[in-house]
């Protein structure tokens, strides 16, 4: 129904407007009696093979919603009703910011891809915290597992970036289950420079030192770009070992534009490319990190997961969990269900 009826209608309109409309519709529908229950019955798949305990968190299934979709923690419960095992909010910054000028979100339909240059548009960490207070406490059967993806404000110089990450870390600490440090978006000027060994080690070690002061620490993951060289990926493995963070999310969007079929003007739009063109590269990065580190840390696989097969390939390459974004836009909530069904069926065979 989504691909034959809903998607053709939505794809007639501006992507960012559709995004906001979809959120409002999802929120409104879930206010109707019984809709949340029906959604869970339709999309939730329960099977022991889907359950995963990772860095101290028990995930009901390995399929999450990637950061960037519910930036402001507006609809985490509603998305959980669609079968996701966890929701990553953000990227959040200390202060609210509008992001880059519109138009900044583009569909490359022939490639089943999206280009975005949103620029960490979000309402700020304080507003998100207020919404996260509505989540059930950790340990409650209705608790939604939340990842907090954190970044720096555009106006913050790179040599002060660590302060922004610390602010977000402290404010979100009691309301998320894990953290993701985002230094890999291509849409904030200079941000990817923070992936270099010295500044990245400083940010991660500072957060780890804060973490160690807490009564109960929270897992910290690092989200990396797919455009890193093998040497840079080896640096990432070394940084994870040095700082003892809990894992890596591979990967963010790419600045590459190879073998695309869509209109050349769309191909040339600045920003990060996600979707099907990223499928193979994201899997290659996962495999490289897993093999070269000898499986030393968990990897969350994201990038071009458009089918159950894509998800299984990332898990076989070494990922412990996967996340969806563009695949969810193109395939709808049935993709979450079908991935979980496929993993469960494979376990039974």
Automatic annotation (TrEMBL):
Binding locations of FMN: 67-71, 91, 149, 182, 223, 251, 275, 304, 325-326
Chemical reaction(s) catalysed: (S)-dihydroorotate + a quinone = orotate + a quinol
Bilayer topology: Peripheral membrane protein
E.C. designation(s): 1.3.5.2
Binding site for substrate: 71, 116-120, 182, 187, 252-253
Enzyme class (EC, first level): oxidoreductase
InterPro entries: Aldolase_TIM (IPR013785), DHO_dehydrogenase (IPR050074), Dihydroorotate_DH_1_2 (IPR012135), Dihydroorotate_DH_2 (IPR005719), Dihydroorotate_DH_cat (IPR005720), Dihydroorotate_DH_CS (IPR001295)
Boundaries of every Dihydroorotate dehydrogenase catalytic domain copy: 50-344
Cofactor stoichiometry and binding remark: Binds 1 FMN per subunit.
Top-level taxon of origin: Bacteria
GO biological process: 'de novo' pyrimidine nucleobase biosynthetic process; 'de novo' UMP biosynthetic process
Active site: 185
Localisation: Cell membrane; Membrane
GO MF, one example: dihydroorotate dehydrogenase (quinone) activity
GO cellular component: cytoplasm; plasma membrane
Pathway listed: Pyrimidine metabolism; UMP biosynthesis via de novo pathway; orotate from (S)-dihydroorotate (quinone route): step 1/1
Cofactor(s) it depends on: FMN
Coiled coil: none
Keywords: Cell membrane, Flavoprotein, FMN, Membrane, Oxidoreductase, Pyrimidine biosynthesis
Main location: membrane
Record family assignment: Belongs to the dihydroorotate dehydrogenase family. Type 2 subfamily.
Subunit structure: Monomer.
Function: Catalyzes the conversion of dihydroorotate to orotate with quinone as electron acceptor.
The protein's name in its UniProt record: Dihydroorotate dehydrogenase (quinone)
Protein source organism: Nonlabens spongiae
């Amino acid at each position: 129904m989504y691909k034959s009826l809903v998607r053709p209608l939505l794809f007639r309109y501006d992507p960012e407007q559709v995004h906001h409309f979809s959120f409002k519709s999802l929120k409104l529908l879930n206010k109707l009696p019984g809709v949340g229950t029906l959604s869970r019955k339709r999309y939730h798949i329960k099977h022991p093979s889907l359950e995963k305990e990772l860095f101290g968190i028990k995930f009901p299934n390995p399929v999450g919603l990637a950061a960037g979709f519910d930036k402001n923690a507006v609809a985490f419960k509603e998305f959980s009703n669609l079968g996701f095992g966890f929701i990553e909010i953000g990227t959040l910054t200390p202060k609210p910011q509008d992001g880059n000028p519109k138009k900044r979100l583009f569909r490359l339909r022939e490639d089943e891809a999206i280009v975005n240059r949103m620029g960490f548009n979000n309402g700020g960490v304080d507003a998100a915290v207020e919404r996260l207070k509505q989540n059930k406490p950790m340990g409650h059967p209705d608790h939604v597992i939340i990842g907090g993806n954190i970044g720096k404000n555009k106006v913050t110089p790179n040599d002060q970036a660590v302060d922004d990450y610390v602010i977000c870390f402290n404010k979100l600490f009691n309301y998320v289950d894990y953290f993701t440090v985002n230094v890999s978006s291509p849409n904030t000027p200079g941000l990817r420079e923070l992936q270099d060994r010295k500044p990245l080690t400083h940010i991660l070690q500072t957060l780890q030192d804060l973490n160690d002061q807490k009564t109960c620490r929270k897992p910290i993951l690092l989200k990396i770009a797919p455009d890193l060289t093998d040497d840079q990926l080896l640096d990432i493995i070394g940084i994870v070992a040095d700082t003892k963070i809990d894992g890596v999310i591979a990967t963010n969007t790419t600045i590459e534009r190879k073998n695309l079929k869509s209109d050349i003007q769309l191909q040339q739009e600045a920003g990060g490319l996600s979707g099907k063109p990223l499928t193979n590269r994201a899997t290659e990065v996962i495999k490289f990190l897993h093999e070269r580190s000898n499986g030393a840390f968990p990897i969350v696989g994201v990038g071009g997961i458009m089918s159950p097969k894509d998800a299984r390939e990332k898990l076989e390459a070494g990922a412990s969990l996967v996340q969806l974004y563009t695949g969810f836009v193109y395939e709808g909530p049935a993709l979450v269900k079908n991935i979980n069904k496929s993993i469960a069926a494979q376990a039974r065979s």
